[in-house]
Amino acid sequence: MTQQELFDAAKAAVVAADEDQAVAVAQEAVAMGLDPVRVIAEGFTPGMREVGDLFERGTMFLPEVIIASEAMVAAVAVLEAHLPADKKEKKAGVVVIGTIEGDVHDIGKGIVATLMRVYGFEVHDLGRDVPLVSYVQKAREVDATIIGSSALMTTTMMGQKTLEKLLKEADIRDRVRTMVGGAVVTQYWADKIGADAYAENAQEAVQKALELVAG
Ligand code: B12
To answer: What are the pLDDT digits (tens) for 126-173?
Structure first.
């Protein structure tokens, strides 16, 4: 199998909501020595995107979307186990990350958190459906450098705006950098609410996080 054929097989397994197949493809990728990050980004993630499109068009229904996302999560777990371990002696920074209150979409946020760990960040993942005040509390507790929030729905992205306000009220906004992401979020939105960075995917998130701590 070529690399491109494997990416296509990864996408097809997620669209078919076939967990066994998705895991088998992930294992094959590991056996082939492919970069796990690329397999997630160029194989499984486009599959999930396609699932979203099918759901929107009404040709795929919620129970299938749930099974497809479980297939994606299982495959990503196989690949994440093969990411290079963080060997950096100096911590890149302290990150508090979570999916905004009211939103249970956590697959992408989880990938961002994992990749940030690989690049030497100390990551505190608050999970999904995270009350806004929890970001503030955790950031204080661990003296966070970066707060990352994920929102996949137009309703919950409003929480990212409120979070900016809460951080100001708590008097810690000038001590942290904020990053926003998630399928519905854009650079325009980040600028509008005053977030310090937006990233479209996990690789870009790491790159922007490194830039934020450097600058
Ligand atoms: C999988 C999925 C689900 C799963 C979630 C499982 C899970 N554990 O996450 C389930 C089935 C549970 C689900 C439920 C619902 N879903 Co849904 N879901 C999706 C779907 C198909 C894929 C999301 C996904 O995992 N993508 C793959 C990952 C890898 O990509 P990603 O999340 O975008 O993350 C990447 C980047 O965005 C970025 N990133 C992400 N987070 C962060 C954070 C930071 C700080 C940074 C810098 C970057 C970053 O990096 C990530 C990795 O590259 C999307 C469609 C879509 N186009 O996104 C709909 C979608 C998000 N869902 C939608 C809806 C409507 C729902 C429901 C309301 C359905 C319902 N009727 O009940 C519920 C919501 C429940 C709730 N309260 O949250 C809508 C939202 C519409 C809108 N505009 O508001 C979408 C867009 C589908 C659609 N087209 O209608 N869903």
So the answer is: 999 999 999 999 999 999 999 999 999 999 999 999 999 999 999 999
Question: For the whole model, what pTM was predicted?
Answer: 0.93
- What residues contact residue 193 under an 8 Å CB cut-off, 6+ apart? 160, 161, 164, 180
CATH pick for 93-214 out of 3.40.50.280, 3.40.50.300, 3.20.20.70, 3.90.1150.10: 3.40.50.280
Q: Which of ligand 1's atoms lies nearest the C-alpha of 62?
A: 11
Q: Does ligand 1 have an atom closer than 6 angstroms to the CB of 59?
A: no
Pick from 105, 149, 200 the residue to mutate for probing ligand 1's pocket: most ligand atoms within 8 Å of its CB: 105
**In the chain, what are the domain boundaries?**
3-80, 93-214
Closest Cα partner for 144 from 174, 99, 188?
174
- Asked if residues 200 and 184 have their Cβ atoms less than 8 Å apart, the reply is no
H helix runs in 16-156, sequence order: 19-31, 36-39, 45-56, 62-80, 107-118, 132-142
Strands 177-181, 197-198: pairing is parallel
Beta bridge partners of 197: 179
In the CATH hierarchy, which fold is given to the domain comprising 3-80? 1.10.1240
In this structure, the residue with its CA closest to atom 29 of ligand 1 is 108
